[in-house]
Amino acid sequence: xxxxxxxxxxxxxxLAPIAERHRARVVEVDLDGRPDWEAxxxxxxPLLLLGDAxxxxxxxxxxxxxxxxxxxxxxxTVARQSEIR
Length: 85
Description:
This protein is an alpha+beta fold. The protein has one domain.
């Protein structure tokens, strides 16, 4: 994510109800403060990963596919907390 990114704002808003439904914790990372990650991810922001950044499984880049995120999170158990970065 980037603080000045309008696409990030859109993805954040679309992701919030999905994450809440699945009890997933969303962790935002500002790429402007992580030049090592920025070099890897380039202009593909926002980038949604499931698991530890920067090596998590990519769920979305630039725009959110709610069905793909729902499918990815549907495989997690309620007793365990998922983390999206």
